[in-house]
Amino acid sequence: MSLPRINASLLLLAVLASLTGCGRPETRIERGVREQILHIANGSEPQELDPHLVTGVTEHHLIMSMLEGLVIEDPKDLHPIPGVAERWDISSDGKVYTFYLRKNAKWSNGEPVTARDFYETYKRMLTPSLASEYAYMLHAVQNAEAFNTGKLKDFSEVGFKVLDDFTFQITLANPTSYFLSLMNHTSWFPVPVSVIAKHGPVYERGNQWTRVGNNVANGPFMLKEWRVGYKIVVQKNPHYWDAANVRLNEIHFYAIESTDAEDRSFRAGQLHIGYTVPLSKIDVYKERHPDLIHINPYLGTYFYRINVTKPPLNNKTVRRALVMAIDRETIVEKITRGGQLPAYNMTPPGTAGYTARAQLRTDFEAARKLLAEAGFPGGKGLPPIEILYNTQESHRVIAEAIQQMWKKELGVDARIVNQEWKVYMDSQRTLNYQVCRAGWIGDYVDPNNFLDMWTTGNGNNDTGWSNAEYDRLIRAAGAETDTAKRHELFQQAEAILLDECPMIPIYFYTRVRLMQPSVKGFYPTILDNHSYKFIYLEPLDKPFSRIQL
Amino acid sequence: MLRFIANRLLQTIPVLFLVATLTFFLVRLAPGGPFSAEKKVPAEILKNLEAHFGLDKPLYVQYAEYLGNLCKGDLGPSFKYSNWSVNELIAMSFPVSLELGCYAISIAMLIGITAGLIASLRANTITDHAPMSLAMLGICVPTFVMGPLLILIFGLTLGWFNASGWDSARDRVLPALTLGGYYAAYVARLTRGGMLEIMSQDFIRTARAKGADDRRVLLKHALKGGLLPVVAFLGPAIAGLVSGSFVIETVFQIPGLGRYFITSVFNRDYTLVVGTVLFYFALVVLLNLIVDILQVWLNPKLRFE
Fold first, then answer.
1. Most exposed residue of A129, A137, A402, B181, measured as fewest CB within 10 angstroms of its CB?
2. Which of A416, A436, A428, A409 is nearest to A326 (CA)?
3. Complex ipTM, two decimals?
4. If DSSP codes are grouped into helix, strand and coil, which group holds residue B115?
5. Do the Cβ atoms of A422 and B31 come closer than 8 Å?
6. What is the CA radius of gyration of chain A?
7. Rounded to two decimals, what is the model's pTM?
8. Is the pLDDT of residue B124 over 60?
9. What is the per-residue pLDDT across A41-50, written as a single tens digit (0 to 9) for each?
10. Helical H runs in A356-434?
């Protein structure tokens, strides 16, 4: 064999070897560990990266890597810890918050973060022409709602005040005990208004300041790359005040909409952290890879709304019968299988220390009696009830289970109807339904977030239900500063809600995700928020091997 | 020829106008709007939001404004991805779909035409039945089965390729094979059919009588005519291929154009719906024109028409 031939053969061998696994190529996550680059699945493509224009959870996760508010959340239990503000005072009446900003907080362009930045940020957020969909998150502030809805023209009358470059004061309309928790929502993060002004009108949509090259951040990371429909890369921000303690160099957020595609990527070693797990694989992971699957409580309730404006569901007794004839244990054990808790009330247990006393129960016998009492013994004479859900397999199976339970236990016929997402939402808004699937994920950790939606005329009530005493209790809770008294008011309100049953709680959500053991500092939290500054990657003893199921 | 092309392009203008009009109104007729969300937006904010996108104006004014912008080549801002215009979204995603489409077409032609030719030359023997059965299988197995299957074998078991993504040259292989393989099956069957028909024509018999050998008969006389059905098929097929495939893009996580055809409708992203439909329409027109020109070149009979 001549020399060039030997060389060619060796080359061929090397290529084959690299292809078949001898000298296996490094996977993306192994390289990530080496270079401190986190690869994480993040649901769908974000709408925007402007905190004033986004509404979704996907966007929230991205933005919280790049922007930092006055307070941030503790990575383990989410209690407020210093962010841009190194400390704060709260007035004795619970209405005035004074924040003392740290002097070394900087934007990624090197400019200092000042009280003026926060003032200008909130002015932009509340300006009607921007039409920020989440501006109501700021309505707890004095006159904020009036300015936001155009009734007040002068922003200086809104409860934001710059005391000096590094002291910022917020005056609330009512004492709001969960205010600091509220401030961790995306809508409270600062934006660099002077930078925004360079890229178009500040108070209108269509500004391009969030794009790569234009974007300026004050958080632990800053925008490096944005491949629409694929991924967003953020890199460590050298100007961040706590940069010395940020251990990751980059985070790659992938927009993967298909849960199956995401699962395959995870198994091939392309993701450190997944977003969700295909329903059919939860049990397999639990059995074969318990170290990779993480199931944790998530602040949200899966429930059905009942349209109380039309017969026969305007009859409370009928509603109560239907609510009692659902076996929630079976639903979470046999259908959802993701460790969800059966829900017998609206507010997830332990929300900011509140667990509802009043509880619904499953009691088929009592349900049958109630139905007979309402004039429909054995379901006779009751017209079929329609259950509406948005087209999705997981909602369909739950609806079918409930349909069967009602038929078997009460003799009630139910029809299930699915509609495409936007059509379904339209039907819900216009009360064009009888019973309708819904879900509610908390924006902040407080029972108010789950209970004030049921007040009369609330935009998210969508059941036509109204109760004066309930409204009064929720209003009173809003003005109460004492936590114990406030919780007692919520207890009474929730008892009314559960007695009247304009909705059927079904289960409390969990977050089910896959995560490589090399990820450290990523703790389960009830809002599924994770401060990225605390996360890092640690090499494992054994090399990664592709996950076989 | 130039007159033919100019004529065809002129004819498309009224059709383009019709397509724009139909899509514009149809998507607005669908229940639910771009801003209906699970958590309700306050009425005042919704009003401002609609004003920003011009939805507060009467429909005919919106339509006139849309057409005006369209004439300038401006497809408007996306309702859902508010940072980007529809032009930008298409400009970013189309190159990806085009690249993948080109690989897929190359694979489809290479495998399809070769298999079809071999099969037609040895009609009704094992060398015909084997590739044709395989082609039938290729047509029957949808891409959403073939894609995950290839990933399972070559990505997760053998570890030769990534399970998804669009970063390195390697990431192109599996999606191109999945998409190309599917079309290769059609091309193979069309090639076989076309070739068998042409090989039974008189002029082929004449060529043989004159002493032309097999190779000459095939390449010089038969191939051009035999491929006519393939060419006719390729016009719309290429338009479909290069404008992206929702399934392939979802299975392999590819940032192409295909997904927008589906998601824009679900999001009621009015401008993106109309934009993608118009873009696709323009592609189909262009490719059909190219196919017509090719067919004239391939088929002398058409030149007289």
1. A129
2. A409
3. 0.89
4. helix
5. yes
6. 26
7. 0.90
8. yes
9. 999 899 899 9
10. 364-373, 393-410, 421-429
